[in-house]
Hints:
The structure holds 2 protein chains of 2 kinds. By secondary structure, chain A is α/β, with parallel strands linked by helices. Chain A contains 14 helices and 7 strands. Helices cover 55% and strands 12% of the residues of chain A. A 7-stranded mixed sheet of chain A has the order 2-3-4-5-6-1-7, with helices on both faces. In chain A, strand 5, helix 5 and strand 6 form a beta-alpha-beta unit. In chain A, 42% of the residues are buried. Among the domains of chain B are: 227-273, no CATH class; 325-362 and 406-511 and 521-552, P-loop containing nucleotide triphosphate hydrolases (Rossmann fold, 3-Layer(aba) Sandwich), CATH 3.40.50.300; 557-622, Helicase, Ruva Protein, domain 3, CATH 1.10.8; 638-648 and 657-756, no CATH class; 786-891, no CATH class. Chain B has 45 helices and 12 strands. Chain B has a 5-stranded parallel sheet with strand order 5-6-7-4-8, with helices on both faces. Chain B has a 3-stranded antiparallel sheet with strand order 1-3-2. Chain B has a two-stranded parallel sheet with strand order 9-10. The longest helix of chain B is centred in the N-terminal third of the chain and has 25 residues, at 282-306. About 28% of the residues of chain B have low confidence.
Amino acid sequence: MSLWVDKYRPRELSKLDFHKEQAENLRNLCKQSDFPHLMFYGPSGAGKKTRIMCLLREMYGSGVERLRSETMTFTTPSNRKVEVMTVSSNYHLEVNPSDAGMYDRTVVIDLIKQVAQTHQIEISGQREFKVIVISEGDELTKDAQHALRRTMEKYVATCRIIISVNSTSRIIPAIRSRCLGIRVAAPNETEIVSILQNTCKREGLALPVELAKRLVDKSERNLRRALLMLEAAKVAKAPFTANQEIPDLDWQVFLRETASQIISEQTPVKLEKIRERLYELLIQGVPPNLIFRGLVEQLVSNCDMSIKAKTLEFATEYEHRMQSGAKHIFHLEAFVAQFMNIYKKFLSELVMTDDF
Amino acid sequence: MDQYPDENEEFELQYQDELELLEDLPDEFNAYDGPSTSKQAAAKQKENRAPPPALKDISRLGNSTLCSPQLSQITFGSSQLIGEDEGDGTSTGGLVNRRLFGTPKGPPVGRGCSTPFQRMPAIAELENTQLTSRGFGLEKENPAANQLQEVGLKNVNKRRLERDLFGDIDDLFHESYEDPMVKKARTEEQRDHEAINRILELRRKMRESSKTLRKDDVSRLKALHDFKMRNLSYEIPNWPFLAIQRSDLERIYVRFHSEEYEQRQLELISARGEVAGSLLGEAKVKIWQEAGEIVLSRAAAAEDPDVTLVNSNSNSEIGRLWVDKYKPRKYIDLLSDEMTNRSLLYWLKMWDKVVFGKAFHSKREQEAVTGEGGTAGGAGNQLNSFNKRTGKFESNGGWRQRKSRQALNTNVDALGRPMQKVALLCGPPGLGKTTLAHTIARHAGYNVREINASDDRSPEAFKLALENGTQMSSVLNEDKRPNCIVLDEIDGAPRQSIDYLVKFISDAVYSKVKAKGAKAEHNVLKRPIICICNDVYDPALRPLRQVAFVVSFPPIDAARLAERLVKIAYKEQLKTDFGSLIALAEKSGNDVRSCISSMQFFNAQKHSLTLQDVLNNNLGQKDRHQGLFAVWDAIFRIQRPRKTLQTDANKVDEPAQVTMTNTSVTTRVRNVLEVVHSSGDFERLTQGVYENYLQQKMPDPNFTGVCEALKWFCFTDSLQHQISRQQNYSVYPYLQYGFVVWHLLFATLAWPKIAFPTRGFEFQQKSTNQRNIFQAICKGVTTSALGVGQGRTLLLDTVPLLKRILSPQLRSVAVQLLSPKEQQDLRHTIEVMVDLGLTFVQVKSQEGHYVFQTEPDLDALSAFPGYTGLSLPYFSRQLIAREVDLERIRRAAPKGGAPSAAAAKTKPSGAAAQLPNHLQILKPKPISVSNMHSAPKQQLTKDFFGRITHKTTATNSAEESKTDAIVKSPIWYRYKEGFNNAVRKDVHIHELL
């Protein structure tokens, strides 16, 4: 509980800092007897998980905060052992099936169905059902999602499922229709600023508003990131100043540098160096679509208006194509080469028009 | 491999006795007890050959009336033999020498001699007396014959020439007894004439006495004599002739006849003989037939090994495949690499001790025994050795030491078997692996038992075959040689069978070690096993590969193969030239079988094989597996115009057009498709192209080509994903077209630099590594730190910032001396680390010094080159590591009533809590009230040296001064703790007061 992210995380619905109306609705939902399956969706760092935990606490009391984590082992049909981490209390079970990769279906079938089938032992509890929290639900494969839909219907008497996703677009409609969707939007700037300042106050620090605003910018309204950045900044320099340096995410910096290198030189040799950098990013586990996004953002912001549209067009084309492949490096490099191509053409045209 | 041709010869010398074995091979077919030394073999040879001369003798005597038109040749043969006889004293030595210098052994004068027995004189010499006595003995009742015999004996004993004469007679056993005439014709010396005259006279008498002489016999003899005179001459004649020199340096010219003529003459004579009837009637016919059979069999035996390329004139061989016809029959005919052959033969010979019960002596060992000193290498554990030719090979002794055999373990086990019980021959098809195995096994005196893919190789059948082959020998067959199992095409055998084979080999070893008794003998493998495979890296062969003596077959040299092809072409009268045969060899990838088959095909079609035919035809071109580099080379390189179909078709006078056609897009596309298709491993090929295409020279200023190429990479990737995910192989054929595009975009005429693609593999390795570290971190996160997120969020958002958070600035001083702010930072860091399950561990870095590393290795995660990770100095890490450990212990301890207790105090207080319990049992109930108060008092006595304890003692004592109940209490007890009295001190309350 020592990271500020954990330390100052609200534990009750009433104490949530933003989307208070929604919190009120959730509390009302708990009071009613028919509690539906829920799907929390919203960007990362918007407080979905916090909200879910608050909701659970509202339902079951402080007992849900007595957590224990376990590692469960499953055997897939192809006799592979898959390990999945679960965090559970007496009332709920939190699992991230995408840890199992392509074997998440096994997890859904074995674990979730099994838990859903069993009745709550403690009858005296407020609720006759328990809750399964599935985090990163949009990473579930289609198979796993299909395995889930029947479970959700059949064992509704003993269990509710709360899915936390970033985007509903990757959830099959069958599941979407079974859940009550709750959108958790990212907090706006003022909300974040106030949260940051509150945090600093509790830590006995003074946070200049300018710094807070810069933190918001830097963190892209990701509250978790903002808090972590704040804490990192504090470690770097204890009494905050307004124009203090804010630590950056290494991979973002790396990506930015890569983009600027693409702009600077368009040769096969450079392309090969870019490839190395892309490989490096992939090795470090940066997902290719994030790389794509980072590159495009940087390239578009640095290039001329006339080729922006083209760049975006190609980016969409290559990213879409990437989804149908397995070797992301090909597609990334193809996009880079394509950009180099149009950029070079643009430059040469520029030179020609200048001459005239 | 043979870099030292001289050494080859030396080796040949070294192995002279082996080579003699080669010579003796045909005889060994009859020999029961396997390989023998040359002397033995020679003796055997004599034994074997003893009966036929006797028969011949008889027939000769019986058919004295028959005369042969081939007398001329006979005489020639005899004189030649004389020469040879006198030329080299020992025929064996001569033979060996001939072998050494590579002249194929055969009748030195080609077809002039119709009886191909070169060794006859020697044998005749040895057998002479026996022969004559035996042969003549049959006719003892005939006095004339006796006399004749006497004369013969006299002649034999008298002079060498006469002996030669008889040798001659031996040689011509099936013809007739006209040799004296020959003698007469040849020699001028009077004594000989006299002797011959006497013989003739005696013979006439004999015939008269037997009364079967026909009237015209004399005239016939006369005619024959004339005939002979027509065919022999001392001057240079005007008919076709062959000049030969007689032992007395006289030149004789022998007439050449065409074979047809000879045949005709022979038939004429034999017909006449039949009409005439014979001296012995039916018996004679029988003997004649027998003799004929013997001649035939001996002709086959003698001619086969010497002339590898069997005479193709005989009608029975027309339908045969040339591949079979020209199969190597003997060790030295083998085309494969000499070193390979030898090492395999060496290995096989190492079995001799077990199989044949006689030790195999390596040359090295011989040397060691003969006391050359210093050369007694690894082979010194063989027991005995004979040094029959000690002095002979001293000069070439050092050979083996310099060039050791590749993988052959020359040591033998306790039973005298080689350490590697199985030989594994591997190489591409058509190099002659099977042939080698068979030839060598036969050569070493084994009976080959082949189990190949056409046989049932289920584990049971395999087991049966193995056991039968190794532990039994055939009873019915008179061929008593031991078995040698050849497991052909073993890479196709089921894995269980191979596992069984491995067990079979090693099991024998076990049982031997376990029980040395009689039962142990039961299972011991005592026969060599040769396995043959194409792909030695077949997964099923892995266990076998480890125990086997692996002989990999290098490709045959194209020139050497072409040489052999020339020979065959010559034999088959196929018109061709060396160049086209080399082209054929190269085209087929030096596949012997395919080359010979192609030649036969051409032969069947027409009567010449030209370069054009070779290049023009698809014959002999097999689906060869090309190396990856060859394929990449073909992709990145425009093939220079070669001698291809067009080149020859268009003739030399239009070279420009030829070049055009060759580098046209169509040709290139076809070529690339062909090459890529032959390789097949598209994924790896793609990766190779991907990692190399940017290095190629490309005239591509606008990146259009690169974009195009990358589009195809993307397409290929999509296809491959489709195939692997959905098993949708219907799109597979499209994969190869990417290579065509890449070829057209990037291929140049220059030699491309191609590196093996490693990046993809490295990428996978590193990714896996990173993933593992990340998983370890995920597992370590405790439930109190769930705010760091899960999965990707944790990796992308938390980890990079966490590195900063965990890098407080601490001075390198003791914990107590840190400023409050530093203390706070440290505290914070430690708590975060414990929450996340991180710690620092000391590891030895690659440079050799010790560093503290995060465990799990947070530093390695999202570490980009050129970016600082955790910026903690060594000291801070050490400090934090210690504190983290303490904090862990603290958290692991049961949470008591005082969670805010100082770190140093936690443990002692836990111990203190235990103590009252222990004492409570001893205490009487009423005092339990005071006992509660006594607990802190005990604590104080115990913490004698602690700084804080003094303070508490003071406060406690102050407290106690107030509480009279304790002071007044009648019960006192002493507290004793620890292992040593040294730190114990009794403190009385009044002392403290």
